[in-house]
Amino acid sequence: MNSAPQEAALTVCWHTRPIDVNLDPMPKKQNQKQPQQAFVDNIRQAAPYIQLHCGSTVVLTFGGEAVDENFEALVNDIALLNTLGIRLVLVHGARPQIEQHLKQSAAEIRYANGLRITDDQALVAVKNAVGSLRVDIEAKLSMGLVNAPMATTGIGVASGNFVTARPLGIRDGVDYGHTGEVRRIDATGIQQQLEAGRIVLLSSLGYSPTGEIFNLSAEEVATATAVALRADKLILLLEGEGLRDSRRRLVHQLSLLQAEQMLRSQRKLSDGWVRHLNNAIDSCRRGVKRTHLVSRTADGGLLLELFTRDGIGTLISAQIYEGLRTATIDDVGGIMKLIAPLEEKGVLVKRSRELLEMEIDHFQVVKRDGMIIACAALYPYSGGLAELACVAVHPDYRGRHHGDHLLSAIEQRSRNMDIRQLFVLTTQTAHWFRERGFKNSDLSRLPLKKRGLYNYQRNSKAYVKVIE
């Protein structure tokens, strides 16, 4: 029922997951900004996230394919992150380089369950490939940020035996030889290098206390490192396109529960995506705040993922939608208690208990320790439009991104309902919505039914956001 969707009010801090989209569905040539102004706008959008990520610890892993294709661009982006104060641990794979060494020596290439079977001959190829690749990566990083005032300063890179490993052994009758698994990460040693301002470079090799060398999965090394460091982010740069839903749309974010459900569902996923999701889930369960799955093939994808509001990859986090669900009739009292102070201040239009009970299915709530601490409502209209209304966060919980999580959930729900545009009416919190991609709109663009209910005495401003 669309009888009384009203307005939204909220005070929270910047979104942890930035969005950068063109919200005008029919941009006009005369409105196109000059390149200089576009640059200024982009800097303004990125600035809060530059500040947010400064001092954070990020573990980034990429395959050997990244080194063979346009690696200079990726290195430049990595150097830029370093200059912005992000503490970086890089973990590189080497599968294509190992394959090349094996082919040159006419050695047999064997896999089981997605893992290389590393016999003595294969281990020689692994050591040669990984060693050569590490030197190449260190050389590129030593160049620093190319064509920049600080280019001549270079970047300090630290490598070492930070990864202790053990043999995988014989599993399901398969002897994996020198293929191993992570036993321990020297988090203290890595932290010392990071505190000295160096980038730490790890490979897919691990060492045992008895001096043995093991071939490891780079993603496993990255996951274990992120967990040991309690990293703010784990970023997997992946081959191919990003994670898509059944309609081939990019999946922007998943809660831990949603990622687990995707793995358990009947949906067909490639072995690679099963592995990526399992690593992301494992890292989140073990304390990593956020894991990003990003396509390596997008130019500047790493920067777009970190410094634009929507990114270009898939974010997986246990914190997304934590305690967030669709409201039930039992939540009406809690919602009324939450929004009453805002109604008294005139920020929200008053809603009766009867109206809330009738429209409760439109609401999403965040509940903690039995109390409703945040809410928002979605009212669909025809023509792919919907209203975002009654956005509120309890004063004790503002600044913790609950409003952002609600907005993300509402946007995902809108995509599932084929809603293309969200609009909001507000009198006092326009800045919050503008910061999250809403643009000022004329009342004539609102649905006819909504215009008929518009309260001219309140003189609310309309804002619209295109859902991609």
TrEMBL record:
Record field: catalytic activity: L-glutamate + acetyl-CoA = N-acetyl-L-glutamate + CoA + H(+)
Pathways involved: Amino-acid biosynthesis; L-arginine biosynthesis; N(2)-acetyl-L-ornithine from L-glutamate: step 1/4
UniProt xrefs under PROSITE patterns: GNAT
Keywords: Acyltransferase, Amino-acid biosynthesis, Arginine biosynthesis, Transferase
Family to which the UniProt record says this protein belongs: Belongs to the acetyltransferase family. ArgA subfamily.
Gene Ontology terms, MF aspect: L-glutamate N-acetyltransferase activity
Cellular compartments per GO CC: cytoplasm
Species name: hydrothermal vent metagenome
Domain N-acetyltransferase: start-end pairs: 322-468
EC numbers, comma separated: 2.3.1.1
Coiled-coil annotated residue ranges, if any: none
Gene Ontology annotations of biological process type: L-arginine biosynthetic process
NCBIfam families per record: N-Ac-Glu-synth (TIGR01890), PRK05279.1 (NF003641)
The protein's name: amino-acid N-acetyltransferase
